[in-house]
Amino acid sequence: MITLNNITVSYGKNVIYKDFSFEFGAGLNVVLGKSGSGKTTLLNVIANLIQFDGECTSDKVAIVFQSPYLSPISVAKNVEMVVTGGNPKQVVEEVLRISQIEHLRDRKATVLSGGEQQRVALARAFASNRPVLLLDEPFQSLDYGIKRKLHQTLNNLLSNYSKTAVMVTHDIDEAIALADRIYLLDGRPGTLRQVASLSVPREERDEYGQESIALRKTLQQLLL
Predict the structure, then answer these.
(1) Which of 3, 131, 140, 148 lies in the 20 to 30 Å Cα band around 116?
(2) How far is CA 18 from CA 100, 125, 172, 198, in A?
(3) Which residues, 6+ apart, have CB-to-CB distance to 97 below 8 Å?
(4) With left for phi above 0 and alpha for psi between -120 and 50, is residue 65 left, alpha or beta?
(5) How far apart are CA 155 and CA 131, in angstroms?
């Protein structure tokens, strides 16, 4: 559980959040919002990366950013550096297998393609075994085909590791494909409200089915 109580964040006269309170439960919570709505600021509060008034209660977090921020060493070493318990090599092999990048284990991470690097970043975040995962539009700069493959990688990892995850995006299709719950962030100061709770497992969802089409239409109208 992530709990935010009476959070206030401002930059000069620009008030992003004021007395903001909310709770995120286990699973993947996707926050939709327009550019500049305060999505990244919300993640920074949970990760305690910025100053704010109020209280945020959260377990230790792992973060996947828009850029993967990998070290110029092998894929396996990039993942192993965050492992804190158990058998590090076993943890690395398992998460590389689930992420379907075990064939890249000995390649230098910084020479991989953008999609491969982001897959390494996801594997590293799950290998850290931190209970909370934050995702800051990690697939934003990737083309459609690569993005869809990374969605599957994230789905596989979420199916194998128990996390409370918060992902921010402005991509409606991405939210429908991945979320357990979808929230809309709007206004200034920002407010957050639940739009949908998706009961169909991610691997069984039909993006062109009636439920997805209806939800997509609702979200499009809310974001206009």
Answers:
(1) 131
(2) 43, 30, 26, 29
(3) none
(4) beta
(5) 16
Whole-angstrom distance, CA of residue 185 vs CA of residue 216: 16
pLDDT score recorded for residue 129? 85
Residue 137 structure tokens: 């539009």
Tokens describing residue 214: 């209806």
How confident is the model at residue 208, as a pLDDT?
85
Indicate the residue type of 46. I
Encode pLDDT of 54-107 as tens digits. 999 999 999 999 899 999 999 999 999 999 877 999 999 999 999 999 999 999
Residues 6+ apart with CB under 8 A from 127: 79, 80, 82, 83, 91, 92, 95
Q: Are 42 and 168 in contact (CB under 8 A)?
A: yes
